[in-house]
Amino acid sequence: MDRPLLPLALALITSLPLSGQEERPAFERLEAEFRAASSAHRSAIADARARQVPRADRPPDPAIRFYPRFEELARSSRKTPEAARSLAWMFANLDKAKPDRAARIEAGQAILARMLEEHPDDPALATVAHHLGTSYGAFGSAGIDALRTMIERNDDGLVRKSALFALAALLLRDEPTDAARAEARQALVESRDRFGDDRAARLLFEIEHLQVGNVAPDFEATDVEGETFRLSDYRGKVVVLTFWGFW
Amino acid sequence: MLPHEKTLVKRLAGRPFALLGINSDRDRDTYRKEAAALGVTWRSAWEGSTRGPIATRWNVHAWPTIYVLDGQGVIRYRDVRGGQLDEAVDALLSAMGSE
């Protein structure tokens, strides 16, 4: 068991101040620390719920105290991939770190601007794209434009894949124009056919077959008693179809 | 949601109307017990999870998700609830010539 210690010893030696350079991955260390804090927080929250502690008295989300640390890392490692990852972390954790909506949007737009200016091709943008897609229009046209830029700057890869789906989601949600729908469809088709994105496939199915005016796609199903039936068995009746659960 | 659905089913008994559920509860026996206890009389496809084949195909991400179909199987309303659901169903029924 001695052999693995040799490379470790070498790594320690070369990382000493003697060489004048910090080579430890600061982002990875900080992220690991955050993950541990999040895990502890989840247990603490479960415990608080069980004891019926009122919401206001429950422990605060660790994202709040970690945010300035990632922010500092982004600042001090400027224009490096570490900065990109830090900025992406910040964007992904805005909801938890900044409960105030106005502050959140302001911070988010600043992060977007900086990422597009300094890291337009960085893989960390895929995280940003993903979160933009579920941001429910909070970043308005700045969010949509950011995704368009990501698509323009990335011919391939995870950033393009994430941005295509996110752009389609935002356009469909927030821009009811024909042009926007056409742009969304095109993004979804590429997402589905070129990147094999299942979410895009499902959303396309919904757009094409589940709108008011479409004949509902038939299906066969088994009920709780084990009997099978088809939706089309109910032709001739007004049907309320409800996806539900007791949970 | 449930009390309203029960009222709807009761109110429209004998009319060309059907309330169909796509249920995502995990355990069939638990479902049956709860359904019996709460007076759920309408038919539900039982998918056993929120990722069942029909919910997945129909891209369902929120529960409940509601579609209202006319007698030809055409989707006429989506995600209407409460009073709006009543109005939608009544409008479709009267268009069918059934008052």
Percent of residues in helices of chain A: 55-70%
Distance between the termini of chain A: 52 Å
Count of DSSP strands of chain A: 3
What is the molecular shape of chain A? globular
Which blocks of ≥5 consecutive residues of chain A have pLDDT under 50? Answer: none
H/E element string of chain A? Answer: HHHHHHHHHHHEEE
**SSE pattern of chain B, N- to C-terminal:** HEHEHEEH
Give the averaged pLDDT of chain B, no decimals: 93
The number of helical runs of chain A is 11
* Strand adjacency order, main sheet of chain A: 1-2
Q: Structural class, from helix and strand content of chain A? A: mainly alpha
Average pLDDT taken over every residue of chain A: 91
Largest sheet of chain B: 2 strands, parallel
- Strand-residue fraction of chain B? 15-25%
C-alpha geometry of chain B: globular
Give a description of the structure.
The complex is a heterodimer of chains A (247) and B (99). Chain A is built from 11 helices and 3 strands; from the N terminus they run H-H-H-H-H-H-H-H-H-H-H-E-E-E. With 247 residues, chain A is mostly helical. In chain A, helix 2 packs antiparallel against helix 3 (62-76), helix 3 (62-76) runs antiparallel to helix 4 (81-92) and helix 7 (125-133) runs parallel beside helix 9 (157-174). The model of chain A has no long low-confidence stretch (mean pLDDT 91). By secondary structure, chain B is of the alpha+beta class. Chain B is built from 4 helices and 4 strands. In chain B, strand 3 and strand 4 form a beta hairpin. At the A-B interface, helix 11 and strand 3 of A face strand 1, helix 2, strand 2, helix 3 and strand 3 of B.
